[in-house]
Amino acid sequence: MSKSSVIPWEDKPADCNDVMWRYSNNPIIDRYAIPSSNSIFNSAVVPFGDGFAGVFRCDNKAVQMNIFAGFSKDGINWDIEHEPIVMEAGNTTMIESDYKYDPRVAFIEDRYWITWCNGYHGPTIGMAYTFDFKTFHQCENAFLPFNRNGVLFPEKINGKYCMLSRPSDNGHTPFGDIYLSYSPDMKYWGEHRCVMKTTPFEDSAWQCLKVGAGGVPVKTDEGWLMFYHGVIKTCSGLRYSMGAALLDLEQPDKVLYRTQPYLLAPATSYEQNGDVPNVIFPCASLHSDDDKIAVYYGAADTVVGIAFGHISEIIAFVKNNSL
Ligand code: BMA
């Protein structure tokens, strides 16, 4: 993701002992922000023009899942289109999609690439590019079903495009590890490598059932900073929290460090209550050139929130609290 110097920001509250903290006006996007929506959550934003653009997961009142473009001057107040994105043909003539959800957006070279969970005989990774967030060109799905959480790196590594993903099943998958795949052309994906698996329950239970990549990894001197979600199965259902890992810059399937404690777990009313309680699901971040980062996350499958941190402090935390 390209850098933006003015990102949403709020200083850490004096009484906060954690490395990341929530925006005091969370949630920033209400579930009914557009007329058709039942919920707006797991969504992605990027710097665009003199402000920001985004792709939003809006489930409608029939609870059909689709993705919508949106624009913002400040990254906090968003105008989301009232109609879902309509795709034109990209590198394929086949544009099949029973549903679309959980988008990510990566600016690579000259355009914005959107990846999402695409309904094609079950969930897999859909791909499209846009230059302007008005016209979108849908490309071949990256993988066979079933797969979710496809997240592109913002640049080629060793001459190839790279994507994280999480092979899954057709339902509420009871497993999930993060893999990496390479492509010469954004169409054919291979050289699949395992990056990161779930943890033993006794080591770090919040991430013992499944893990999945969050937003586009952020390049730092210490490695690719990748936020991710981790899931535990509790007596009353699944609980989704956020952690972070540092991946090797040249060989990103190599995990250098990875959080044992979470960075953010459901604790506020909008994270604990909603259509799916107890979910923090990061899908994007904005970072500045002065060490600030704002992570955008879906809360309780209902609304969107932001959490802030200083990149250097997050890196130190990941290194000092690594599994
Ligand atoms: C996952 C996906 C996400 C959702 C999460 C919690 O399997 O469906 O979109 O946020 O479950 O319900």
What do these coordinates show?
This protein is mainly β and 323 residues long. The protein has one domain (34-320): 5 Propeller (Tachylectin-2, Chain A). The chain contains two helices and 22 strands. The strands form five sheets. A five-stranded mixed beta sheet has the order 6-10-9-8-7, with no helix packed on it. Strands 15, 16, 17, 18 and 19 form a five-stranded antiparallel beta sheet that branches. The protein has a four-stranded antiparallel beta sheet with strand order 1-22-21-20. The radius of gyration is 18 Å and the shape is globular. The model has no long low-confidence stretch (mean pLDDT 97). Beta-D-mannopyranose is lined by residues 42, 101-102, 172, 240, 276, 279, 281, 298, 301.
Question: What labels would you give this structure?
Answer:
323 residues; mainly beta; Tachylectin-2, Chain A; 5-stranded mixed beta sheet; 5-stranded antiparallel beta sheet; 22 strands; 47% strand; globular; binds beta-D-mannopyranose
Please render the helix and strand layout as text.
Blueprint: E1 21-22, E2 37-48, E3 51-60, E4 65-72, E5 79-80, E6 87-89, E7 100-108, E8 111-119, E9 123-130, E10 136-139, E11 147-152, E12 161-167, E13 178-183, E14 190-196, E15 210-213, E16 218-220, E17 223-234, E18 237-247, E19 255-258, H1 269-272, E20 280-287, E21 292-299, E22 303-310, H2 311-320
Parallel strand pairs: 6-10
Antiparallel strand pairs: 1-22, 2-3, 3-4, 4-5, 7-8, 8-9, 9-10, 11-12, 12-13, 13-14, 15-17, 16-17, 17-18, 18-19, 20-21, 21-22
Beta-D-mannopyranose is lined by residues 42, 101-102, 172, 240, 276, 279, 281, 298, 301.
